[in-house]
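Progress note, sequence design subtask.
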């Protein structure tokens, strides 16, 4: 850090802003170790907003894409006043990386910033890739929890499937997409439901096999298999976890599951 002359230091009055930075690996470790608490926090927070106990200022995202450019970057500010009165200010500045030269095999790049609510400096900065992925998985899990059991539509309810009191029979899940979002979606869903079978559909067979191996370790009582097509799967729950622009199935041939969820944003779909 350069040192300025004392008189210039006094005139410029520069004070260091305290900043904690968290890498993708740190984000993963923090949220997966405390996954139940994270899901409960998100679900109850959404419930508070829906019930009017909390307020949110969420302007439309600003998306910038140059002519002829495959990717884009976007700015997403948000201010949330929680039920306890605390104010949370965040800004995401993320890019869609479809070139992948300097940052290979990572579609989401950029940072998520948490601001000190009174002084408005950035107090925490997070790598956005895995944070965005696990957020998407959490949304899918919470949506499925509400939709599959509407009688328990209560924002404060949270009963992990690992609890003996969950009262839910084991069921079958089909994941379309074996990437980061698919992994986190299955992980988050496993905190709400017990699965007897997870089918993974992905054109990249090696990736699908790797995800099945991980899920077999994570959920040893659940069988995980690679499936060639969703038409081959008899599932109660189908989750789309890919932004592929290639056709995934022929709708005329699909035997629909009892519930399908799409956790991806509309701008990510063809």
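Output:
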């Amino acid at each position: 850090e350069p040192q300025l002359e004392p008189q210039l230091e006094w005139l410029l009055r520069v004070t260091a802003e305290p900043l904690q930075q968290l890498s993708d690996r740190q984000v993963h470790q923090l949220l997966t170790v405390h996954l139940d608490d994270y899901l409960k926090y998100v679900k109850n927070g959404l419930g508070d907003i829906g019930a009017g106990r909390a307020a949110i200022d969420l302007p439309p995202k600003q998306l910038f894409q140059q002519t002829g450019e495959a990717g884009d970057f976007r700015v997403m500010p948000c201010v949330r006043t929680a039920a306890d009165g605390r104010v949370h200010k965040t800004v995401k500045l993320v890019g869609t990386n479809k070139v992948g030269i300097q940052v290979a095999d990572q579609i989401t790049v950029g940072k998520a910033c948490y601001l000190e609510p009174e002084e408005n400096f950035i107090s925490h900065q997070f790598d956005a890739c895995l944070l965005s992925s696990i957020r998407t998985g959490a949304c899918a899990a919470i949506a499925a929890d509400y939709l599959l059991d509407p009688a328990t539509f209560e924002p404060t309810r949270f009963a992990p499937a690992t609890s003996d009191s969950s009262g839910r029979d084991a069921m079958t899940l089909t994941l379309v997409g074996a990437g980061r979002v698919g992994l986190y979606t299955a992980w988050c869903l496993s905190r709400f439901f017990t699965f007897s079978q997870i089918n993974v559909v992905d054109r990249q067979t090696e990736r699908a096999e790797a995800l099945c191996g991980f899920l077999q370790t994570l959920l040893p009582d659940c069988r995980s298999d690679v499936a060639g097509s969703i038409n081959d799967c008899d599932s109660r729950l189908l989750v789309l976890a890919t932004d592929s622009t290639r056709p995934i199935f022929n709708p005329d041939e699909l035997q629909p599951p009892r519930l399908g969820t799409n956790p991806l944003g509309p701008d990510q779909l063809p």
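Residues 151-166, 266-270 have pLDDT under 50 and may be disordered. Work on this subtask will continue into the next period as scheduled.
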